Amino acid sequence: MVSYTTVSPLPGEPGGLFSVALACGLPRVGVTHHPVLWSPDVPRGNYLPRDRLAIPFVNYSSPEALPEPTGFASSTTQHSSEFTNTGCRSDSDRLEGVLILLPPSEGKTAHAQGSAFDLDNLSFAELTDERRLVIDALSNASAREDAMDILGVGASLANEVARNINLHTEPAAKAHDIYSGVLFEALNYASLDETAKQRADESIVVFSALWGAVRFDDRIPPYRLSMSVKLEPLGKMATWWKKRLTPVLDAAAKDQLIIDARSSTYAAAYKPSYGNSVAVNVYQLRNGTPKVVSHFAKHTRGEVARFLVQQKTAPKTASELLELIQTKWEAALVEDKKTMALNILLPEDHQFTTVR
Fold first, then answer.
1. Is 13 helix (H, G, I), strand (E, B) or coil?
2. Is the pTM of this model over 0.85?
3. How many CA atoms lie within 13 A of 85 on its CB side?
4. Which of 206, 212, 271, 214 is nearest to 237 (CA)?
5. Model confidence over 127-142: pLDDT tens digits?
6. How many CB atoms lie within 10 A of CB 162?
7. 206: Cβ–Cβ under 8 A, 6 or more apart, which residues?
């Protein structure tokens, strides 16, 4: 081994020196045999390491993958106590079942016939009083002359806004028949077999600025309200719902693996507290480079939800989820702001088509 010391002036104000000892001839440092320890000399932050931003499809679930992601040790590495205290689970913790979080569609399918909804029969009954408050606030806002501005919609949606005024008399239908759009077309609930439909009813939770959260078999009327809207006297809906949804959904999730397929607008209304969640991100190759998919990410997330409810056995850990998803898509697990993200990479020639 050969070592020597280098001394360099620091940039900026004169008078500072930076000294470091360099060594040559040492063996490669093993990174898979010891927990990662945090030094108090290095401040923590909520950013992704630069190398993972540049290479979003390195599979960090593999013991051989380099660089080793901070906090998420490989299968041959133990978690440090510093990381364990954040509430995140290792792969050795067996999670019971799976919960799939979806955003709603902004547009809804109206039904000409059907009885009105019953607020007391919706899932997550703890939210009943809060739902009454939002219904009243939305009705009042929708009756105002500036309703379109408040709700952030154009004149072409005037009929949908007017429908908000009398939601108690609107024909209701099950949520999977009310929500439409790219994600729900890709999920295509109607074409699932009965067993998969039952799994969807039990495992899927749709976030809503009006209801907070509903399950697929809840009967609701069509409505027009986004989580980004501010309603008087409640304020911004995402902020208002967050403290109300968190205890209810944390209790519902328990030890289930949470697969988060929501858009950022709806993700703002609830962040799972126990570190057992995996967000779904979608990329597509463009001239050989992975690029973020925006609108049609919903389509792939709908396909992922459909694929999961068709499985006989639900994944219990992030690693099991990755193994399952890799049977259909190219994918990798990466660290994303102290939780995990499942990055799906679509080929350049991928077509966003709906199952019929």
1. coil
2. no
3. 4
4. 212
5. 999 999 999 999 999 9
6. 13
7. 102, 103, 104, 175, 179, 213, 214, 215, 216
